[in-house]
Write a structure and sequence with these properties.
Elements: H1 2-7, E1 14-15, H2 18-23, H3 26-32, E2 44-49, H4 57-60, E3 62-63, E4 66-67, E5 69-74, H5 96-99, E6 101-102, E7 105-106, E8 113-118, H6 130-147, E9 149-154, H7 171-179, E10 183-187, E11 207-212, E12 219-220, E13 227-232, H8 236-257, H9 268-279, E14 281-285, E15 290-294, H10 297-305
Parallel strand pairs: 1-7, 2-8, 2-9, 5-8, 9-10, 10-11, 11-13
Antiparallel strand pairs: 3-4, 6-7, 11-12, 14-15
Length: 308
């Protein structure tokens, strides 16, 4: 009986975003590294957004005895209940592309856990929301080791075109998170701006993630030179969520392979970004005359795993 069980092939889940995941070669990565990587197990993704309905099946799920939600916090009110208040709605779903593991549907890093953190009233924010967002990031700094937080999805957008950073209260905690080796990225925005991107993606020590049209390497939505990576999705909040999941998988691959990441960057997040960029497909954008790099997760993993 035991012998028969070992011969049964691993059964993959269905991607929650099939076109996007195939385009970024996430499903190819699942297949090739199914017996090598755990796709997020042992890592926690902090979802910093406008609150969450924790009673949703996606977040009450328990996989192999491990609850999907590891911890929750409301940095606005200072309590452990991150329910939606005011105009919030986005935080209930932002973790699905990166983290879902429910009824055979998988997000990118489907075996991860999430830390649900309410950092403001609505994801369509104002720079004045820097104060509670800074408290949310500070909470992550103080608790990242306890909860194994390796990655932060900083989900809000202010829907403006910032061609340069705007000094705000989140800048110091963003710098500290980078020093700690924690990946932090944010969506660029969805208004087809070609002269700037949303805050907080505009800020130093926060990777700005843009988008290409799912299934086609055509750059869409907000973009300028601050964007470091584009990902197939119809909204940059989804492209950033996918990028966060991919970062968790690449981190595991680096750790398992012993890849000498210090040759790529002065800290692990910057090294991982450099790997994504050098292995990603170049996508020229006529509107900005810039060439962006599109995520290719399988190529990034192959690059890391082939090293001694």
């Amino acid at each position: 009986m035991l012998l028969l069980l070992t011969l049964v092939p691993l059964r993959a889940g269905e991607p929650v975003n099939p076109v996007e995941f195939r385009h970024a070669r996430i499903t190819d990565a699942w297949e090739k590294y199914a017996k090598v990587l755990t796709f997020g197990r042992g890592q926690t993704l902090a979802l910093v957004d406008d609150g969450c309905k924790l009673a949703m099946p996606e977040w009450t799920a328990i996989v192999d005895g491990v609850p999907k939600v590891r911890v929750a916090w409301d940095a606005v009110d200072g309590d452990p209940d991150p329910k939606h208040e005011g105009r919030g709605y986005h935080g209930s779903t932002i973790g699905i592309p990166s983290s879902l593991n429910l009824n055979g549907k998988w997000g990118v890093a489907y075996n991860n856990q999430v830390a649900v953190i309410r950092g403001l009233e609505c994801c369509h924010c104002k720079i004045a929301d820097s104060a509670p967002l800074a408290r949310a990031l500070q909470w992550i700094i103080e608790h990242h080791a306890e909860h194994r937080i390796t990655t932060v999805n900083l989900a809000p957008v202010d829907d403006l075109a910032h061609g340069a950073p705007v000094p705000t209260e989140i800048d110091a905690p963003l710098a500290r998170l980078r020093e700690l080796g924690i990946w932090v990225s944010a969506p660029a925005g969805n208004h087809h701006f070609t002269n700037g991107i949303s805050w907080p993606a505009s800020q130093p020590n926060c990777f700005a993630i843009g988008a290409v049209k799912p299934g086609v390497d055509v750059v869409i939505l907000d973009r300028d030179a601050k964007i470091v990576l584009v990902v197939p999705a119809s909204a940059t909040s989804s492209s950033n969520a996918i990028a966060c999941g991919a970062a968790m998988i690449l981190r595991e691959a680096i750790e398992r392979s012993g890849y000498p990441w210090k040759t790529d960057g002065k800290n692990l997040p910057e090294a991982m970004l450099a790997i994504f960029q050098k292995t990603g497909k170049p996508v020229p954008d006529p509107a900005t005359k810039l060439t962006f790099r599109r995520l290719d997760l399988l190529a990034a993993l192959d690059h890391v795993m082939k090293k001694p």
